[in-house]
Amino acid sequence: MLAQTRAVLERFRAAGGDVTETVFAMSGHSPFLEEQEAFVAALTAHLSRARDGASARRHA
Description:
Blueprint lengths: L1 H13 L16 H4 L1 H23 L2
């Protein structure tokens, strides 16, 4: 499953999409429960990049 997901994300990246992979080493299927602080930090960083990118595209 991981290889399939990475293949899809690589196609997205090749088409101009922005992809960041984050590995939560101490988690199974629920990093939002098992590593809450790391998950929130990664999610917040992702949302900030998305917001900043959207803002830059609006002003271009």
